[in-house]
Amino acid sequence: MVYRRTERVEEQLQDKRNRILEAVRQVVGEVGFRGAQIAMVAEAAGVATGTVYRYFPSKGELFAEALALNAQHEIHVVVSVAEVDGQAPSRLADALRVFAERAVRARRLAWAMLAEPAEPEVDAARLVYRRAFAEVFEKLIRDGMVQGDFPAQDAAASAACVMGALAEGLVGPLAPEAPDLADTRTLIDAIIVFCLQAVSAAPSAHSSRALENKL
């Protein structure tokens, strides 16, 4: 007779898996990817170290899935801001601001998600969520082009550049060795101004011709 897990057993297994992933977020938020060890995650989740490995064969896979789960939540938050009524420039500014403010509030975790050296699986997960954020910004740029708030441009390329500027603008100040941020509002405002200027500027004659050829 083939053994089949009951619904209750499945729920218990999923609950344990969720606890492990949440424990990764907690531990990484305190010590980063480099400092986080499987034993620390197991203790935070209230399970044995071997149990963690039964769910996740390697540290890289565990951290990559935990990063992806956290990123999905952050993307949902940014999308909820980006989709409110209003002009595209203000919606883009608000989306950038909520991303940056949440990163600054969870400084150690945000630096780990954005830039801390980690396993290849983590780097691959980072690329996926960076593209997802860029897609949110791309839609806002396209909306702005339709509304006449932004000039014609390659919206996908511009969005990728906005995501790059946002991440790079935050990485240095978020790094563990960086001094405490005394004036986070000034930093965030500067990043937003730069990004809005980048997508709002009228193209030069040379860039206009290049864009026309592409379009």
What is the topology?
Layout: H1 7-35, H2 38-45, H3 49-55, H4 59-82, H5 88-105, H6 107-114, H7 120-147, H8 155-174, H9 184-200, H10 205-214
Helix pairs in contact: 1-2, 1-4, 1-6, 2-3, 4-5, 4-7, 5-6, 5-7, 5-9, 6-8, 7-8, 8-9
Structure description:
- The protein is an all-alpha fold.
- About 80% of the residues lie in helices and about 0% in strands.
- The protein contains 10 helices and no strands.
- It has helices spanning about 5-35, 40-45, 50-55, 60-80, 90-105, 105-115, 120-145, 155-175, 185-200, 205-215.
- α1 crosses α2 (about 40-45) and α4 (about 60-80) packs antiparallel against α5 (about 90-105).
- The longest helix is centred in the N-terminal third of the chain and has 29 residues, at about 5-35.
- The chain is elongated and about 60 Å long.
Note the beta-strand portion: under 5%
Overall mean pLDDT stands at 89
Q: Tell the overall outline.
A: elongated
- Describe the largest sheet: none
Q: Outline the low-pLDDT stretches.
A: none
Number of helices: 10
Radius of gyration: 21 Å
- The helicity comes to over 70%
Structural class: mainly alpha
The CA-CA distance between the termini, in Å, is: 63 Å
Q: How do the helices and strands follow one another from N- to C-terminus?
A: HHHHHHHHHH
